[in-house]
Amino acid sequence: MNNTFNINRFGKLLKQQYQLAGKTLALALTSIFIGYTLILLIFTFNNAYIARMEWLPFFIILNSAIALPFAAYAFPAFRSKEKTFDFLLLPCSVTEKFTLNLIIRIIAPWIVLPVIFYISSHLATELALWYFPQSNIEGFRLWAIFSQIDHDDLFFAIVSILLTGLIHQSVLFTGATVFRKQPLIKTLLILGAVASIIIFYFYIIIGWVEIYKNGRMPWFAVFENNETTVYYLIGVEIALLLTTLAYAFYRVKEKEIA
Fold this sequence. Notes:
This protein has 258 residues and is mostly helical. It is built from nine helices and two strands, in the order H-E-H-H-H-H-E-H-H-H-H. It has helices at 7-45, 55-72, 81-88, 94-107, 109-131, 142-146, 151-178, 183-208, 227-257; strands at 49-50, 136-137.
């Protein structure tokens, strides 16, 4: 038997987790749908004209507000010693347990939440048009929004958006493997401290050292705005994403060995 990843064993693990949390999941999804619908109803009922692009901020903010904290509480069994012990005793490999949390906490939200948003937005649109027939509301269409971007930039825009979201999720996901209590808050505090150090660094080299004086350029301003630079930045983002997830896997593996 494959001790790293077995699809049948993984299926049984998925079924077991669904049996344990299926009702909670259904309740959570119903609550999200109601919350989305109420917020979007307020938006549509207070605007006689809504262009398609105006849906985008709601799409990003609402989905991110749920997806990011959700990733920060991956591996819920790690929140207590007793549940951690039970989780480690599950007859599955570390890879299978890690993959399950990766799918549920990072990938699934960006499949389920856009669908809920799509349904809620169209329900809110139809109700607003029924109540205010004179309104001019363009329905939400994510691909129609992307189609307004120049064709040459569309690929880079989609990849950049996906990688940005995944990196944020992966960092919070990793924080859940490091901190037992309040992983979201503690991870955000660490990120805030790191961001402060980076900002202070740039403040020193730009402000105090006068790096731009006499035509000098700092290392971060050398790159030109061309396709090669974009590919380089995408490569850096992918490396950062894989490194973060690799560290999270190491943390889970470490708990099982310990």
